[in-house]
Specification:
The chain has 392 residues and is α/β, with parallel strands linked by helices. The protein has 15 helices and 14 strands.
Length: 392
C-alpha cells in the first residue's frame, strides 16, 4: 500500500493542490488526508458539479485540479467530460482519481458489478488515458509523473484508477462535533418505520439507511416487501418514490433519504413540489456526513433543508432533533390511528389532514454500528416482492 501523504505530496510537487469530488470508500484514507491538509478542497454535491468547479479553478489559475470519485460517479461526469473539458470544446486538463468498486474478479455488492465491468471501457470510449495506480510508491511516482506530463502536453484529462487497499489507513482528525444531537439514525429509522400504515411503502436511499431499515425489519420479524432498497443510484430515491406515489395515490409513500443523497440531486425536490402528490412523505436523516464512505462532511447541517423544500413547493416542512419531537410529529402522520383529540383537531384545521408532500428533516448523530449487516435478499427479489405488494 502507499501512503496518502506520499500521493498528496507527489502531486503538490507538480503544483497540483486543488481537490474536489464526492467521497468513496476506496478513497476514504486519501479523502481524510486531503480534508486535514489541503488548503483548497471542496466536497461537491455530485461528480458533475465537481467537474464544473475544477474547470473554473483551471480557468482562474491555469493549475491542474483533482476530481475524485467512486466509479459509480463516472456517469455524472460524462456530460462535462464530453461538452466542457474535451479537447474539441475547451480543452481543460483535470486529474481524475477514481475508486474501482466492482472490479472483475473482486467480490463486491451487486450495485457495483456492472459499473466495475465498464469502468475502464467508459474511459476508453471517452478517449481519456488512464493508469491503474500501483500499490508500490516508486512505481506510483512514475505513474503520477506520466499523468502530469500527459496533461501538461495535451491539456486533456487523465485518470488514475484506485483499487481496493491501495492507500494505507489514515484517520480523519478534522471532525465537527454536534453534541446537541442525541438521536442515532438507526433509532430514528426504527421510530419512523414503526409509524407507517399497513399499506404504506418506503423507498430508502443507498448506504447505511437501507442497511439499517433492512435490519429493523429482520429484528422485528417483519417482511421486506414494503421497502424498496435503493442500493445504488445515489440521489435518486426521492424520484423513485415520486413515481410510485403518482401511480398509487391510495398508498402513502415514504422516501427515506440521507443528507448527502438529497443534496446530490437537490433539484428533485422541485419536481416533487411541482407534482404535489398528496401521499408523499420525504424523510431526510441528516447527520452532515457521507457516513458509508468514511464520514466525510456534507453541508447538510449548515443549510436549511426544510426552507429549501418549502420554497420548492412542499406543503409542509418539519425539522426535529430528538426522540420526543419525532414521536410528536409522527402522531400527525399516523393514518387514522391516533386517539388523541388534539391531533385530530389539528388535522382537520390543516387542510383536512392533507399534509403532503411533506419534508421531515431528522437531525441525527453521525456514525453507525460496526456490526451492521447488509441486505440478504437480492435487488431483483426486493423489486419483485415490492411489486407484488403494490398489486394487492
Amino acid at each position: 500500500m502507499i501512503r496518502a501523504s506520499f500521493f498528496y505530496q507527489e502531486l503538490a510537487a507538480y503544483g497540483i493542490n486543488f481537490y474536489t469530488g464526492v467521497p468513496d470508500s476506496l478513497l476514504k484514507n486519501l479523502c481524510a488526508y486531503v480534508t486535514d491538509h489541503a488548503d483548497h478542497h471542496i466536497i461537491a454535491a455530485n461528480e458533475g458539479g465537481a467537474m464544473g468547479i475544477a474547470a473554473g479553478h483551471y480557468l482562474a489559475t491555469g493549475q491542474i485540479p483533482v476530481v475524485y470519485m467512486q466509479n459509480s460517479g463516472e456517469g455524472n461526469i460524462i456530460n462535462p467530460l464530453a461538452s466542457l473539458v474535451d479537447k474539441e470544446v475547451y480543452n481543460i486538463p483535470v486529474l481524475l482519481v477514481i475508486g474501482w468498486r466492482g472490479k472483475p474478479g473482486v467480490h463486491d455488492e451487486p450495485q457495483h458489478v456492472k459499473q466495475g465491468k465498464v469502468t475502464l471501457s467508459l474511459l476508453e470510449t471517452m478517449g481519456i488515458p488512464y493508469s491503474v495506480l500501483s500499490k508500490e510508491e516508486h512505481e506510483a511516482s512514475l505513474q503520477i509523473k506520466q499523468a502530469v506530463e500527459s496533461m501538461q502536453q495535451s491539456k486533456e484529462c487523465y485518470a488514475l484508477i484506485i483499487e481496493k487497499d491501495t492507500f494505507e489507513p489514515y484517520q480523519l482528525s478534522t471532525v465537527t462535533a454536534h453534541p446537541e444531537l442525541s438521536l442515532s439514525r438507526e433509532e430514528a429509522i426504527g421510530i419512523v418505520a414503526s409509524a407507517i400504515g399497513p399499506k404504506d411503502v418506503i423507498v430508502s436511499t443507498t448506504g447505511m439507511i437501507s442497511r439499517e431499515l433492512f435490519e429493523y425489519r429482520t429484528r422485528n420479524h417483519q417482511g421486506h416487501e414494503r421497502d424498496f432498497l435503493t442500493v445504488g443510484s445515489m440521489g435518486h430515491a426521492s424520484q423513485i418514490a415520486l413515481g410510485i406515489a403518482l401511480e398509487k395515490p391510495d398508498r402513502r409513500v415514504w422516501c427515506f433519504d440521507g443528507d448527502g443523497a438529497a443534496i446530490m440531486h437537490l433539484g428533485g425536490m422541485a419536481i416533487v413540489g411541482s407534482q404535489a402528490p398528496g401521499n408523499y412523505v420525504h424523510v431526510v436523516f441528516n447527520n452532515g456526513a457521507h457516513d458509508s464512505v468514511g464520514g466525510q462532511p456534507t453541508v447538510g447541517l449548515d443549510i436549511d433543508l426544510p426552507t429549501i423544500a418549502k420554497a420548492a413547493g412542499y406543503k409542509q416542512v418539519v425539522s426535529v432533533s430528538s426522540k420526543e419531537e419525532l414521536e410528536r410529529c409522527l402522531d400527525f402522520l399516523r393514518p387514522f390511528s391516533s386517539k388523541r383529540p388534539e391531533v385530530e383537531r389539528a388535522r382537520h384545521d390543516n387542510d383536512g389532514g392533507n399534509f403532503s408532500p411533506l419534508l421531515l428533516e431528522i437531525r441525527v448523530q453521525k456514525g453507525n454500528r460496526k456490526d451492521l449487516g447488509r441486505p440478504t435478499t437480492t435487488p431483483i427479489e426486493n423489486k419483485e416482492a415490492l411489486m407484488d405488494f403494490l398489486k394487492q
